Amino acid sequence: MIKKAILTGGGHATRLRPITTTINKHLIPLANKPMIFHAIDKVVEIGVKEIFINVNPGETEMQKVVGDGGHWGIKITFFEQTGGPQGIAHVVNLAKYFIGNDPFIFYLSDNITFGSLKPLADKFEKENLNCLLAFSKVTDPERFGVGEFDANGKLLRVLEKPVSPPSNMAQTGIYFYDKSFFEAFQNIQKSARGEYEISDINTWLIQNGKKVGWNEVTGWWKDTGKPNDLLIANHLLLDELPANHFTNGATVEKGARIEGNVKIGAGSKIGPKVLVRGPVIIGENCILDDCYIGPYTTIGQGTEIYTAEVEHSIIFENVDINCKTRAVDSVIGKNAAIIDGHEAPPKGHKMILGDNTFIEI
Prior knowledge:
Layout: E1 4-8, H1 19-22, E2 29-30, E3 33-34, H2 35-45, E4 50-55, H3 61-66, E5 75-80, H4 88-94, H5 96-99, E6 104-107, E7 111-113, H6 118-126, E8 131-137, E9 145-149, E10 155-160, E11 169-177, H7 180-185, H8 198-207, E12 212-216, E13 221-223, H9 227-240, E14 251-252, E15 257-259, E16 262-264, E17 269-270, E18 275-277, E19 280-282, E20 287-289, E21 292-293, E22 297-299, E23 304-306, E24 309-311, E25 314-315, E26 320-322, E27 326-328, E28 331-332, E29 337-339
Parallel strand pairs: 1-4, 1-6, 4-5, 8-12, 14-17, 15-18, 16-19, 17-20, 18-21, 19-22, 20-23, 21-24, 22-25, 23-26, 24-27, 25-28, 26-29
Antiparallel strand pairs: 2-3, 6-11, 7-13, 8-11, 9-10
């Protein structure tokens, strides 16, 4: 049984700025819990007892949020990604001291997948493989590590972000390895972009006689690399939650309408002129008054919303929305404020926007 796992917790996620300017990507809330929690849940389900998470040098927030693993009944250790960004294969090699000679799963924590990983873990063990890779069909394979197969479906090699992809089968960010990984790492070179590529590890294993298996992930899988990916992942995670997850710990005033699957945290207050249509998750100690919250919205704790309409959006904690506006397909970071402008001239939209901000008005 696989007892150890390496999860990613570093990187800078430039495609998600400005959100990731102040928050680690892996802590972005999806279905109102940090993204990395979904990855931890997945590996714990297959029997993992020790998890090693890489973090950027100087990182402290990840450790505070995730803790030592006691919440899951396991042990979690953090290690810094030294030497700058040198590729995810380098991340795994940095954990060699923790892994030793044991088999392990390497999971990219910014990937969201549905369905259990147990069939993959079982195949890895029963077939006594050195490596097991998970692929999924994608429409943009040039963004990923892509498998090249022969006419019989045998995996020949894996190419990293190829200009002319040999197939539409992308690596999903779920990898099972034994100690052969570290042998392979000693025998690969940095790519043209200056990184140790996980695709080169996998190709070396294939071409040097190691037993490499693969499976297609037929359920939903998403690499949350762009803001719209976050919204899609949030949407589908809400759909996957069981009905008993949607509990109400709020004070709901007479006249408020709560429809469908809606979870509201303790201490929240829902005013009389509020309509909430699920699936929706509202955190603790929120205040909603004279507003509409539409399907596939998650709202972090301490947020206050007045007079606005919000739908299909991710609202972080301690946000203040107090204006007659309709926000859709939006990601709003913690402590943000959206308020009505002054009625007095000059009229217009007052903005204080950071680097890489996107706004549509």
